[in-house]
Amino acid sequence: MEGFKTRVESWDDFSPLKHVIVGRADHTCIPPSEPATEAKVPEDSDMRGMWGPRPLETVEKANLQLDHLANLLEKRGIQVDRPTPLQWNQAVITPDFSTGSMFGCMPPRDVLLTVGKEILSAAMSFRCRFWEYLAYHGLMQRYFDEDPDFRWEQAPRPRLTEDSYKQGYFDEITIEERLKRTAELNFVTTEDEPLFDAADVMRIGKDLFCQHGLTTNRRGMEWLQRHFPNHRVHSVNFPGDPYPIHIDATFVPLRPGLIMNNPKRKLPETQRKIFEVNGWEIIDAAPPSHTQPPPLCYSSVWLSMNCLVIDPKTVCVEASEVNQMEQLDKLGMEVIPVPFRDAYPFGGGLHCATADVRREGSCEDLFPKQVEGTRIRPIN
Q: Across residues 329-356, what is the average pLDDT?
């Protein structure tokens, strides 16, 4: 937009969207095996043992759908920015580790956490994603130049040594054992240093709900609480998920007072209380329309519920997810079908592929009644 000046501010995922970053698929790689990626790749996945650049044909198809999403949002008056892809097929080498390639920049939601007037680059647990924030560096510099109130922040860069992971965690592990460990809050990451992905954080005004799982540890949540002292940081988990990575295909706020929960990954009763006492309704998401993810895709079929809320009455849903579209239509929302399955393998769904720069609204207290059981407490 000619003459547009950036104003960074976003407190939740459902207020009217005004400015957003949409990712790109260029040069995306399947990264080599490392302690964190072992957590994400299911045992029966066709990606086991593979690594290197993704086939060019699949990159082009993904970019067509990402470009379509960007154009659709622009036609609705939303400012859209795009990252600058790196050549991801390069080794990552630090004094503490090395790995054969990087990942990509299709899912900015994983890296960038917008809280009010701040955009924070996360302390991610994947070694292959160590330099991923650089794809957004030019945008952050521009926002800094254009918005005098913008806070450009970086969480502590993790060292990601062997001490950050439990050795042998995935040796001959069954799904049943995975479920047992996740229910016990026993994950591959240790508490050696703060680790978190931005996509593990659900923002609802004054309250931040963080999924404790394979990519976010308690020390990371404690760091977030210290960094955002005026917020309340809560730890949530979903025992039915054998691969608990990122909250936005499990627990999705649609508008104030309404959240959609993955019926296979139920929020524990003790953690539901904070929503119930504040009058929030938690509904089960509709079943996915597919029984399998696309080829070479990390994610589960529950990307069906990884939707992008444009405002409390309008939502983008993957075009083939007819069950999810029907459910949201019955809830009174305008549903915009967006073809996106070709982009799924590059990092997730419509919410994953975007990161907020600005939404309307302010930092509301939508949970005035606090309860015991979710607030993060110091580890030591």
A: 98
